[in-house]
User: What shape does this take?
Amino acid sequence: MTDRDFSLFQIALQQRATSVEALLGNLLSDRPQTGEISRPPRLMAAIRHSVLNGGKRLRPFLVMESAALFKADNLAALRVAAALECVHSYSLVHDDLPAMDNDDLRRGQPTVHRKFDEATAILAGDSLLTYAFELIASEETELDPQARIALIATLARAAGVGGMVGGQALDLEAEMVKPDEQGIIRLQAMKTGALIRFACEAGAIVGHAGLEDRERLAEYGAAIGLAFQLADDLLDVTADASHMGKATRKDAAAGKATLVSMHGIEWTQRQLVGLIAQAEELLAPFGEKAALLKDAARFIAERQS
Assistant: This one.
């Protein structure tokens, strides 16, 4: 990626992040929406702390850029992107809990259960998960009913027992019984990769793309999802906590098996190069329209935080 290309990507990433944060800030106010009785202020403060606490907004970016390939409605794509960010934020709130990863910091700030309390953190996560599906189902997300149903079903699969939640269960099991290489890949594809894969496929659904294009973007999402986790595991070994905004070297301390611990840093770096090439090949049929998505693959693999 040239300096100019990187600059263009960073600008686009920030623009998408600003858009989704503005929408989420409006949606997650204390003001009750139609049909709601009230919004408890402490719960809403915890929700906003988890969602509006920084972050690159990479998953929303992937939704919106994938949708842009098919000239999709921008507002519909933005609302689906916001819904996905709600699911992602819920997962972080629950993963940080003492019963899970027991983390004190997230993006350099106290985790929700530290700033508030464990019960409020659980309820904040529950609220975000359910609200995500409300966002997609709402008529304000101006998509035909079939597209909304497809998005709901695909997100539910990605987030549930066969996706992210199941991956977290496997991750907890891995602390007791180390998985083999295929087990690690399966765990990571579920825990981290499933939502990234959904982000890319969702853009195709919003854009009413054909099945072939939808599958192609899902495969692209799977490739960069694996790259994301490999890069994350690499950073856990090589970066410091102040740079990352969260604790590092936790996997090694817990004796948890990762592909980095199994094969080493140089092997991991070679795999990341291969995954970038795979992602670019999958996007080749879209030509220059997919330039920012190609940049996203490289950004994910080469990120420093």
The CA atoms of residues 90 and 125 lie 4 Å apart.
